[in-house]
Amino acid sequence: MSDDDTRAHGEEPDDRPDPDLDPVSAPEPRGDIGPVLEEPPGPINWNLLSAHDAEHAWLELNQWVNWLRATYGLPAAVIPPMWHRHPELLWELSALHTHWLNAYDPQQNGSAPIGWLRDFADTRQRLRDWVAASGTRLDRDRPTRQTRWPGEEDAAPIEDTPITNRDEDFVAFVIADVERRRQIEHDYYASLNPETGEIA
User: Fold this and answer.
1) Which of 1, 114, 116, 173 could anchor a disulfide with 103, C-beta 3.0 to 4.6 Å?
2) 162: nearest Cα among 82, 90, 74, 87
3) CB atoms near residue 37 (< 10 Å)
4) Does some domain include residue 94?
5) Given a cut of 80, is residue 3 above it in pLDDT?
């Protein structure tokens, strides 16, 4: 039954995420990468995304980052292959993507792209700083070093990991992130009292 048929019967279409959907079976990237929303989006808070929303946000951001690095010939010192494994790069690129969507929205002022390009220049320098601090490179990756404050446990030794297939790693990373979020959601709803709706 189509969404139109569903609405005709007085029901809302089922927008729940398909539990079998994963990044491996996601549709091929579109030929263009223009805005897909009816209105410019607001900022994305990655800490609060549901499993369903995170999956789609990851796929769209990954597609856009690939377009960005190819269009502007960006080296790995600005956008490394494993940017998805470094939160500081994720947040920076996500903010830049949202800024781009808003700047190139058809309803936006015609001079908005100039503002985005100016901010893009600033962002490239910040990305270089983040990449240099993180230690991730074109052919190898390691988690960003964390400064341990007095009283905190010592971190495990950090070792470089060779990058053999970036796209496979991205898919595995997103699947794990989506499953982690799905488990958090499951645990939360399982803790609710079905009669009162309060946490038991």
Assistant:
1) 116
2) 82
3) 9
4) yes
5) no
Half-sphere exposure of 189 (CA within 13 A, CB side): 6
Return d(Cα 101, Cα 37) in angstroms, integer: 9
CA distance linking residue 151 with residue 131, whole number of Å = 28
Q: How many structural domains is the chain composed of?
A: 2
Three-state DSSP at 141 gives: strand
> pLDDT, tens digit, for every residue of 18-76?
444 444 444 444 455 554 445 668 899 999 999 999 999 999 999 999 999 999 999 99
Paired with 199 in beta bridges are 192
Does 6 map to a domain? no
- Cα(145)–Cα(158) distance, integer angstroms: 8
Each residue of 104-121: pLDDT tens digit? 998 899 999 999 999 999
Residue 30 lies in a domain: no
Residues 139 and 79 grouped into a single domain? yes
Distance CA(8)–CA(35), nearest Å, equals: 29
Residues 135 and 79 in one domain: yes
pTM for the structure as a whole: 0.78
| In a domain? residue 83 | yes
Write out the residue range of the structural domain in which residue 95 sits. Answer: 72-144+158-164
Distances (CA, A) of 85 to 49, 92, 175, 190: 17, 13, 13, 30
